C-alpha cells in the first residue's frame, strides 16, 4: 500500500506542476483571468494533497486499512475537486458545457475533508506517541 500511495503522490505532484505551468504560461491567452484563478485553485489543492499522500505513506503506526480509506477518499476527492475545477475553468473554450458537472466539485471537497478527518481520528485513537 505504501508504494501505491507514494506513486500516486508522485503522479499528482507531477501533474500539478505540469498543469500549473500550463496555467501560468498558456492558459492566460485562452481564458479570462477569473478562469485562470479558478484553474490555479485546482492546481493548488492537487499539490496540497500530493504532499498529504506522501505524509500518509510515511506516518508510522497507521493501520493499512486506515491508509486505504484515507488514500481512497483523497484520490477520489482530488479527481472530483481539482479535475472538475480544471474543466470548469476551460469551459469557455470547449463545446461541452462543463457547468452541468459542477456539482461534483463540492462532493470532491467533502471527500477531501473526510480524508483529513478520518486520518485525524486514526492518529488520535492510535498508540503513536
Number of strands: 0
Distance between the termini: 23 Å
User: Averaging pLDDT over every residue, what do you get?
Assistant: 89
Secondary structure tally, helices: 4
Low-confidence stretches: none
Roughly what percent helix?
over 70%
| Percentage beta strand | under 5%
Q: What structural class results from the helix and strand content?
A: mainly alpha
The backbone outline, from C-alpha atoms, is elongated
Task: Please tell me the total number of domains.
Answer: 1
Main β-sheet description: none
Taken in chain order, the helices and strands follow as HHHH
Radius of gyration: 16 Å
Protein name: DUF423 domain-containing protein
Family: Belongs to the UPF0382 family.
Keywords: Membrane, Transmembrane, Transmembrane helix
InterPro entries: DUF423
Amino acid at each position: 500500500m505504501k508504494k501505491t500511495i507514494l506513486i500516486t503522490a508522485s503522479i499528482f505532484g507531477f501533474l500539478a506542476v505540469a498543469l500549473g505551468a500550463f496555467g501560468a504560461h498558456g492558459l492566460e491567452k485562452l481564458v479570462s483571468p477569473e478562469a485562470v484563478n479558478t484553474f490555479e485553485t485546482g492546481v493548488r489543492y492537487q499539490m496540497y494533497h500530493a504532499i498529504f499522500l506522501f505524509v500518509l505513506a510515511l506516518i508510522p503506526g497507521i493501520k493499512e486499512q486506515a491508509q486505504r480509506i484515507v488514500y481512497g477518499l483523497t484520490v477520489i476527492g482530488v479527481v472530483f475537486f481539482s479535475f472538475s475545477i480544471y474543466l470548469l475553468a476551460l469551459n469557455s473554450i470547449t463545446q461541452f458545457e462543463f457547468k452541468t458537472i459542477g456539482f461534483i466539485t463540492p462532493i470532491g471537497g467533502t471527500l477531501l475533508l473526510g480524508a483529513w478527518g478520518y486520518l485525524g481520528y486514526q492518529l488520535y485513537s492510535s498508540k503513536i506517541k
